[in-house]
Amino acid sequence: MAKLIDGKKISGEIKDELKEKVAQLKEKGVEVTLAVIQVGNDPASTVYVGNKKKACAYIGINSLAYELPEETTQEELLNLVRQLNDREDVNGILVQLPLPAHIDEDTVIRTIAPEKDVDGFHPQSVGLLSIGQKGFVSCTPAGIIQLLKRSGIEIDGKECVVVGRSNIVGKPMAMLLIRENGTVTVCHSHTRDLKEVTRRADILVVAIGKRQFITADYVKEGATVIDVGMHRKEDGKLCGDVDFDSVEPVAGAITPVPGGVGPMTIAMLMNNCVSSVE
Ligand SMILES: Nc1nc(=O)c2c([nH]1)NC[C@@H]1CN(c3ccc(C(=O)N[C@@H](CCC(=O)O)C(=O)O)cc3)C=[N+]21
After folding, report:
1. Do 252 and 223 meet the contact criterion of CB atoms below 8 Å apart?
2. Is pTM, for the whole model, over 0.95?
3. Cα(207) to centroid of ligand 1, in Å?
4. What separation in angstroms does the CA of 250 have from each of 162, 216, 218?
5. Which of 265, 268, 270 to mutate to test the pocket of ligand 1 (most atoms within 8 A of CB)?
6. Which parts are annotated binding residues?
7. pLDDT score recorded for residue 92
8. Is 265 near ligand 1, meaning CB less than 6 Å away?
9. Which CATH number is correct for 29-113, 3.40.50.10860, 3.30.470.30, 3.40.50.300, 3.30.1370.60?
């Protein structure tokens, strides 16, 4: 029986800490403001954006919501980002991804002022992370480090295996685990014997985007398993990249979906907003 890593509870603790910080800042006359831009009305994006607004309201962060139509041109979006860059009362800017196909995400991300890049997606933020200097860190991997630390799971000296090499999860996850003195291996679609590699992991982080792909035979007895995936099943329920029922009996600790990594992503976004004014 694995220990359940409760992302909902831990994210709640972080949000309460941030609420206190924001109240103290308010006493000094400092406000925290996040601008969230959504282009089009993809239902999943609308749910996430709604969750972000709710978290802002709870903590006491002002949120400005920009809901732009699907037909918005790249230049119109860039102009809005530039306006927000120039506004002194806006501390953080988040452009919800994915964007419609006629807009180049990379150009949009590069246009966000690095000091307002609360997603940690700007090349400057990524560069600072890779040389171990202060900057915004991508929220999902930052949240995973918090889950491990606050669950008393040591990273120092451990075999850490990350499955997935995306710019927003896999790569920054590897960087953060290195920073914590883990021994890190990154696997991806060209990895020859995936199972052989994942079975070495003391800490296994799975971000491959394949529903319930990781089964017990990929996991060493007692390993910590972190599931970044999110898929909706035919019955409407959410599940991850890890087959929870298969892996849970062999793992030492495991995150559920929902209630694991997802809520931590939002808590770390809030944390980045607060540190953008500090
Ligand atoms: N610029 C940008 N930044 C992002 O951080 C970003 C994004 N674009 N695009 C989409 C992804 C996805 N994402 C999630 C956040 C919270 C949950 C979350 O709270 N999940 C809940 C369940 C939510 C539900 O019930 O649907 C859970 O796992 O317990 C999930 C996914 C942020 N993203």
Report:
1. yes
2. yes
3. 13
4. 18, 7, 10
5. 265
6. 164-166
7. 98
8. yes
9. 3.40.50.10860
Residue-level pLDDT at 278: 84
Which atom of ligand 1 is closest in space to residue 95's alpha carbon? 1
Average pLDDT, the chain: 97
Ligand 1 pocket test: pick from 230, 239, 270, 271 the residue with the most ligand atoms within 8 Å of its Cβ: 230
- H/E run at residue 176: helix 170-179
DSSP state of 223: -
CATH number attached to the domain at 139-262: 3.40.50.720
Domain borders along the chain are 29-113, 139-262
Buried b or exposed e, range 161-178, using 16+ CB within 10 angstroms: bbbbbbebbbbbbbbbbe
Using the predicted structure, report yes or no on whether residue 1 has a pLDDT greater than 90.
Answer: no
37 lines ligand 1 (CB under 6 A): no
Spell out the residues 6+ positions from residue 234 whose beta carbon is closer than 8 angstroms to its own.
Answer: none
Taking the centre of ligand 1 as the mean of its atom positions, its distance from the CA of residue 94, in whole angstroms, is: 13
pLDDT value for 145: 98
pLDDT value of residue 60: 98
The pair of three-digit structure tokens given for residue 26, joined into one six-digit string: 């308010």
For 108-145, the pLDDT digits (tens) are 999 999 999 999 999 999 999 999 999 999 999 999 99
Amino acid identity, position 60: G
Q: How confident is the model at residue 156 (pLDDT cuts 50, 70, 90)?
A: very high
